[in-house]
Amino acid sequence: MGIAATWGARGVCPNAPVKVETVMATGTVKWFNSEKGYGFIEQDGGGADVFAHYSNIQSTGFRELIEGQKVEFDVTQGQKGPQAENIRTI
After folding, report:
1. DSSP secondary-structure letter at 62?
2. Predicted confidence (pLDDT) per residue in 3-34, tens digit
3. Residue 4, SS3 per DSSP
4. What domains, with CATH codes, occur in the chain?
5. CB burial string 68-89: b at 16+ within 10 A, e below
6. Exposed e or buried b per residue across 37-59, where buried means at least 16 C-beta atoms within 10 angstroms of its C-beta
7. Is the Cβ–Cβ distance between 83 and 57 less than 8 Å?
8. Start-to-end CA span in the chain (Å)
9. Can you point out the beta strands (E) in the chain?
10. Which long-range contacts does 37-42 make (Cβ < 8 Å, 24+ apart)?
């Protein structure tokens, strides 16, 4: 099998991830339980609330969000719906 058969006619691996430029979403923390480490963010502009887990908060030290706090984040599809990644306060 030659390179063209393995990598495709243009030399690009067909299973390689494709980097897509995205614009970070913004929203307001609806609620966050610091003891359990999760909560939800209400998106600016509407749409479903987005699940927020403490492990996705970009911060040093104790990572938590405060109700009413403005944040920016990437939205990905989780097991149970939209979830926030790379959460940063603004």
Report:
1. S
2. 555 555 555 555 555 444 567 999 999 999 99
3. helix
4. 23-32+40-90 (2.40.50.140)
5. eeebbbbbeeeeeebbbbebee
6. ebbbbebeeeeebbbbbbebbee
7. no
8. 53
9. 25-33, 38-43, 50-53, 70-78, 81-89
10. 39/65, 41/65, 41/71, 41/73, 41/84, 41/87
| Residue 8, phi-psi category: left (phi > 0), alpha (psi -120 to 50), beta (remainder) | left
- pLDDT at residue 8 in the model: 55
With the C-alpha atoms ordered 22, 78, 81, 84, is the resulting torsion angle positive or negative?
negative
Strands 70-78 and 50-53: unpaired
Q: For residue 45, give the nearest of 23, 74, 25 by alpha carbon.
A: 25
pTM, full prediction:
0.74
Give, as one character, the DSSP assignment of residue 40: E
